[in-house]
């Protein structure tokens, strides 16, 4: 034990020595008189400021100082080191160029720092935050060819707002400004803050844009600050319209004509094919409802623009409808560029014409794709896709997509008896940019609602075992309330699975009814609905993602036919028993960003599928699975559960996918960026699947009150190579809690033995995948 400790101390000493050597070695490359700039610190001398306020001011000031010192990790500067050791390249390419200028980082020297400029930044920023008498000085501290600049700020007392006035006059625009005053961001008693004043000007401008003042600008508003009318470091704010505000900015405009060019091209404008504005006499033949669609070749049905455009003749201009119209035109998916112009048509009546200049995308495209792929069952392989897309199928911006594909997959590190998969198929989809239904559907969203119709067929061959024919069809709607909320309702979703060939070898190895259900004929139909909420696109420290799915199969049919498999009343359609069940699944994720380079991602999955009526079991394709690269990574895909069922009791060579009717899973992952594209992660996963009913072939599989004692736990570390176009993920995990071990012996800590090669083979699981797990 003593010898082992001595070795550890030697390694520790060697690591510290190496780190110090690496840190010091950067300065030896400096020329005579040069000093490495190590950063700046701002010290605030004001005992009356609260500690929190002082820390916030200090952090903001240091963030604004330039330049930033060389990046460091634990006090070391490896990028600078690589820059220094690399030879100056003769060309802008090659290994030396890559090492010096891509991996490396040029030294930031004290001579690069304009200390007087930074001093003025500190004073100006402080004054903008209400410290009107701020004074700053600086000093330089140097040692061993390294230099740090210390800035000392004496901010004085911070001024606060005593009163806010909105100056009145008789103009229409001032009347509208007065109506916005009750929601002002400028509050009495709050500290003076120039950023808040800027936001207030933007708020007033946005409000006026909603009331028809298209040509108004935030610069037309001035907020005067007067510190002479009050004592005790108070300031009075006076919000008023600038005297030199243009007359056009004070006029309230309404829409005269709405004119659409759906085949607009900048080259056509240069050739004078289209003229803006157009002669009113030439517009009449293009009239449709209250708009004019200039489409001589009739490439588009005019009604698609009537649905997309929110402005009508006589409407008062407002920014909301302006943006909604542009977003809806873009979301049609048929236009590459969408440009909008407003041109005054009657200055006395304050009216302008709205022009929409739309450049179509390529209407048809044919694309051949070759893909490398992985899935949650640890299968990897390749796929070849041929896709044809028509973006204006019936001249109403309908998107028609047809694809044929073939794929070959093989399992990496899975079950010894796993077989390769060959898949080939075709699918078509027609997406109509409106709700096709016997009822009226109104949406004020920026996203166009869609009706989707799909048909598909897939031939699946699991070599040496079976071949299956899979037919799918669906009809439904997708609509978004806004960028965060999306609904997906399939009124009817049909799946038909029909085995074409099943080998004797499969029946020899699939010895249980559960294992043989994969080759049973399956007819599944019914509605499905999913709701998605996410704000992960926002630049907030904490964001969430939620998706809830409801799947109801055969419910009305089962009710009408009186199906009851338990009483021997199994009903069939076309000779196939139809499935009847209710399934719900919830996927909740929370992301918290600590810094720009570190974050925590968590996920909870909870789902249940309940068979009844015409079904005793959930169809194999609709069951839950656990384990694999996107689930509990310490267990191979579909080898965990259900419950405490022990897969070691299965005779060697037996086929069994360990599926369940109930799923609970919790994942947590700490993510950090090491260098550009290189990211690391530390993760922990927990969960399992269970059955609703007893299964005599799988004891312990049924969900019970002891379910918490049957939770599997795994943990590990991972590398993520983020190449922008794809993320290659490698996760090494090991089980910490195994639910099928004897009670009291399920935690695996006492069995961990990294020195045992057999233990490593059985317990260390390497997952290779593309993309993040969640």
UniProtKB/TrEMBL annotation:
<keyword id="KW-0998">Cell outer membrane</keyword>
<keyword id="KW-0472">Membrane</keyword>
<keyword id="KW-0732">Signal</keyword>
<feature type="signal peptide">
    <location>
        <begin position="1"/>
        <end position="18"/>
    </location>
</feature>
<dbReference type="InterPro" id="IPR000184">
    <property type="entry name" value="Bac_surfAg_D15"/>
</dbReference>
<keyword id="KW-0812">Transmembrane</keyword>
<dbReference type="InterPro" id="IPR039910">
    <property type="entry name" value="D15-like"/>
</dbReference>
<protein>
    <submittedName>
        <fullName>BamA/TamA family outer membrane protein</fullName>
    </submittedName>
</protein>
<feature type="domain" description="Bacterial surface antigen (D15)">
    <location>
        <begin position="461"/>
        <end position="750"/>
    </location>
</feature>
<dbReference type="Pfam" id="PF01103">
    <property type="entry name" value="Omp85"/>
</dbReference>
């Amino acid at each position: 034990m003593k010898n082992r400790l001595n070795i550890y101390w030697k390694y520790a000493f060697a690591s510290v020595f190496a780190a110090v050597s690496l840190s010091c070695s950067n300065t030896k490359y400096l020329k005579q008189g040069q000093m490495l700039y190590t950063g700046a610190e701002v010290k605030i001398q004001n005992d009356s400021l609260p500690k929190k306020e002082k820390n916030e001011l200090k952090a903001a000031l240091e963030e604004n100082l330039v330049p930033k010192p060389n990046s460091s990790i634990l006090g070391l500067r490896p990028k600078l080191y690589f820059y220094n050791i690399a030879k100056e390249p003769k060309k802008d390419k090659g290994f030396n160029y890559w090492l010096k200028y891509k991996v490396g980082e040029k030294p930031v020297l004290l001579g690069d720092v304009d200390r007087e400029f930074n001093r003025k930044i500190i004073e100006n920023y402080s004054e903008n935050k209400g410290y009107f008498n701020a004074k700053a000085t600086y000093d330089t501290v140097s040692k061993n060819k390294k230099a740090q600049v210390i800035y000392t700020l004496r901010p004085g007392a911070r001024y606060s707002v005593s009163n806010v006035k909105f100056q009145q006059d008789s103009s229409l625009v001032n009347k509208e400004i007065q109506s916005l005053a009750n929601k002002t961001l400028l509050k009495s008693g709050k500290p003076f803050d120039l950023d808040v004043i800027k936001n207030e000007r933007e708020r007033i401008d946005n409000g006026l844009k909603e009331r028809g003042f298209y040509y108004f600008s935030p610069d037309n508003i001035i907020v005067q600050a007067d510190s002479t009318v009050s004592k005790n470091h108070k300031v009075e704010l006076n919000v008023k319209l600038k005297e030199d505000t243009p007359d056009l900015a004070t006029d309230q405009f309404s829409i005269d004509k709405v004119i659409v060019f759906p085949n607009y091209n900048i080259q056509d404008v240069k050739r004078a094919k289209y003229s803006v504005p157009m002669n009113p006499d030439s517009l009449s033949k293009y009239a449709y409802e209250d708009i004019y669609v200039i489409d001589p070749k009739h490439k588009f049905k005019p009604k698609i623009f009537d649905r997309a455009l929110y402005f009508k003749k006589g409407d008062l201009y407002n920014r909301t409808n302006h943006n909604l119209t542009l977003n809806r035109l873009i979301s049609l998916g048929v236009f590459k560029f969408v440009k909008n112009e407003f041109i005054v048509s009657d200055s006395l009546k304050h009216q302008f014409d709205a022009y929409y200049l739309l450049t179509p995308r390529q209407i048809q495209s044919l694309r051949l794709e070759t893909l490398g792929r992985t899935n949650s069952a640890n299968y990897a392989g390749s796929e070849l896709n041929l896709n044809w897309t028509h973006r204006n199928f019936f001249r109403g911006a309908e998107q028609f997509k047809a694809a044929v594909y073939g794929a070959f997959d093989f399992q990496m590190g899975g079950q010894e008896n796993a077989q390769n998969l060959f898949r080939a198929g075709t699918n078509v989809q027609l997406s109509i940019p409106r709700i096709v239904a016997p009822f009226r559907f109104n949406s004020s969203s920026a996203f166009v609602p869609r009706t989707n119709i799909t048909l598909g067929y897939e031939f699946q061959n699991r070599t040496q075992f079976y071949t299956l024919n899979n037919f799918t069809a669906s009809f439904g709607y997708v609509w978004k309330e806004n960028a965060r909320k999306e609904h997906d309702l399939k009124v009817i979703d049909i799946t038909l699975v029909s085995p074409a060939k099943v080998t004797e070898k499969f029946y020899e190895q699939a010895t249980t009814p559960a294992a043989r259900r994969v080759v049973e004929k399956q007819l599944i139909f019914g509605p499905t609905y999913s709701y998605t909420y996410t704000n992960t696109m926002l630049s907030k420290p904490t964001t969430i993602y939620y998706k809830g799915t409801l799947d109801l199969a055969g419910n009305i049919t089962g009710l009408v036919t009186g199906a009851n498999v338990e009483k021997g009343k199994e009903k069939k359609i076309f000779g196939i028993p139809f499935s009847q069940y209710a399934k719900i699944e919830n996927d909740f994720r929370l992301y918290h960003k600590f810094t720009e380079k570190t974050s925590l991602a968590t996920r909870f999955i909870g789902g249940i599928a309940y068979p009844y009526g015409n079904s005793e079991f959930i169809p194999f394709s609709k069951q839950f699975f656990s384990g694999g690269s996107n689930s509990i990574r310490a267990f191979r895909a579909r080898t965990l559960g259900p419950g405490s069922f022990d897969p070691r009791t299965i005779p060697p060579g037996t086929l069994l996918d360990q599926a369940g009717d109930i799923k609970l899973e919790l994942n947590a992952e700490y993510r950090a960026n090491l260098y550009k594209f290189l990211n690391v992660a530390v993760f922990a996963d927990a969960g399992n699947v269970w059955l609703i009913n007893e299964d005599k072939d799988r004891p312990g599989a049924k969900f019970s009150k002891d379910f918490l004692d049957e939770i599997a736990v795994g943990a590990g570390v991972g590398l993520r190579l983020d190449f922008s176009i794809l993320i290659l993920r490698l996760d090494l995990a090991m089980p910490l809690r195994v639910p099928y071990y004897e009670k009291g012996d399920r935690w695996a800590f006492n069995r961990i033995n990294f020195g045992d090669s057999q233990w490593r083979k059985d317990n260390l699981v390497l997952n290779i995948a593309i993309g993040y797990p969640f």
